[in-house]
Amino acid sequence: MKIKLPFSTLCFWVLLVLFFATTQIMLGNYFGPRETGISIILFILLYRWKKWIGYTFLGVTFSCALLYGFVGLTYGHLDKNAVDALLFTNHEEAWEYASSVPVSVLAWYGALIVFSLGIIGYLRRHPFFLQKTGPGTVMACLALLLALSSSTYLKNLSRGIPSHWWDLKSTEIHFTHSVYSAVRSSSQGQSKYSIFNRHADWQASSEEGINTYVLILGESARRDFFGAYGAPWTNTPWLSQENGILFQNYLSASAGTAPSLSRQLYLRSEEADFNPAYNLITLAKSAGFHTVWISAQGERGGADSPISVVAKMADKYTFIADNLNPLNKVIKKTDEDLLEPFQEALAHPGKKLIVLHLLGSHPQACRRTDDRYTEFFRSEELSCYIESLRNTDRLAQSVTDALKQEEKLHGRQWRLLFTADHGLDFTTDQNGWCLKHMDKRQGSYEVPMFITGSDYHDRQTVEAFRSGIDFLPFAASWMKITSDKLPDNDCQWLQDSVCRNQDYVFRYSGEKVRFHDLPKFDLNTFIQENP
Ligand SMILES: [Zn+2]
Fold first, then answer.
1. What's the rounded Cα separation, in Å, for the pair 78 and 29?
2. Domains of the chain from N-terminus onward
């Protein structure tokens, strides 16, 4: 039997796929074939049932994408920050935000309108094209819809993991749930500032001398697994040998990427309203730096959003693993791929800050290292973890070599700061020992901190505690930046002197706790308990 599919019908189905995939991306989700399939089946069933309901479904999806697209494509899926921005922003801020939106956003809008017109055109010419399908097909569609949308839900249910209606895999359900929970947790206009706000009045200035500052933000790096911090393996030759200041007791602000970096990169004060425009990038720009952000992490949605808000205020930003680029699904990017855009950024002659945000040692570590490791330690995952830190150290070495080369060629002095967003904690899964995100014990907050540069000629250590909650004044001191807006802690951040309030971290709940009140469980204890 030969199925004859007229060309116009084929075009219609292609347009339908493109339409739903595009709306999904504009709502701040990544393209998912399953979610697109669900939307298409839903449309078929509704249109066959009552034409006007099918049209309404298309219309509502189209309108949501149109209204939210410019936020969804730049910021990510709907959350409380996005709701605050959409509902409580003033015109000036909204305009400033809109004018910073890249041209590619317009291309998505254009594409969506073209796809919609194509679909409407076909439906007007063939209004009854679905009416010939029998009840058998309808039942098959219903069964497929159920299977596609509820498999995760049922899997969780069978494993005893709590399941919710919003676990059903469908863009429509996700969006409804996002709207519901975002509006519920929105500050209802209480906060004076939104993510649209880009105006910071730092009035900062900086000392001359150093041309290039590089901040390497590692990921999920437990300090006691670094050879340089006493681990029984040599996985960090760069960190162990390079001249500079090694901080022995630096703490991350919290134990996860978003809870840590959304505190470390922004100016936060307990009295004043949190204003996202006051962050590391705007501080550096105000002090006359050219700023570049190069990231191997996600660009938008959920945990990535508060970090990309800062990243996107940089003069230039690159997300090498942007999920909107279909090629990136095929070609896996690693931290190594940050080096090429880094070299390009180095070519800028003026004073600059370059941030490299790594994927580092994020679980699972074996996915970071392609299952490769040098020394076996207790489990494959722990062995890969040691290897992932070795890769990070090698990357830092390449960056340092490039900076030294620049200094030799152009006399540009430089400084480099290496740290990580948080640590991890020991646990087990079906494959044995591994390290996961947890916030209960000290190790989750103990991260490396190292400063090197052309003006460091020996190795020093700082024993005094430093908390990531004060990362902004710390980094300002590193960049020799001063501003009245920075909190005055009366602290010599880069010297081995005791400073006030450096013993605090944030639990996931948002509770601020004393680090020394958390239980200690370090690598040595682990080795003793698991010989
Ligand atoms: Zn992280």
1. 9
2. 7-188 (no CATH), 211-482 (3.40.720.10)
| Residue 470 and residue 512 in contact, taking contact as beta carbons nearer than 8 Å | no
CA–centroid distance, 422 to ligand 1, in Å, is 6
User: What's the 119 CA to ligand 1 centre distance in angstroms?
Assistant: 43
pLDDT digits (tens, 9 = 90+) for 200-250: 889 998 988 999 999 999 999 999 999 999 999 999 999 999 999 999 999
For residue 294, how far is its CA from the centre of ligand 1 (angstroms)? Answer: 16
Tell me, in angstroms, the distance from the centre of ligand 1 to residue 335's CA. Answer: 14
Report CA(506)–ligand 1 centroid distance (Å). 14
**Cα 41 to averaged position of ligand 1 atoms, centre (Å):** 37
Rounded to the nearest angstrom, the distance between the alpha carbon of 421 and the centre of ligand 1 is: 5
Taking alpha carbons only, the member of 309, 339, 518 closest to residue 423 is 518
| DSSP codes of every residue in 428-463 | EETTEEEEE---SSGGGGB--EEEEETT--SEEEE-
In angstroms, what is the span from residue 317 Cα to ligand 1's centroid?
20
- What is the reported pTM? 0.80
Q: Are 214 and 354 in contact (CB under 8 A)?
A: yes
Ligand 1 centroid vs 81 CA: distance in angstroms? 20
Q: Give yes or no for a contact between 80 and 187, defined as CB atoms under 8 angstroms apart.
A: yes
Query: Is the Cβ–Cβ distance between 264 and 424 less than 8 Å?
Result: no
pLDDT in tens, 329-381: 667 788 999 999 999 999 999 999 999 999 999 988 998 898 999 999 999 99
How close is the Cα of 257 to the center of ligand 1, in Å? 3
φ, ψ of residue 116 to 5 degrees: the values are -65, -45
- For residue 323, give the 3-state DSSP assignment: coil
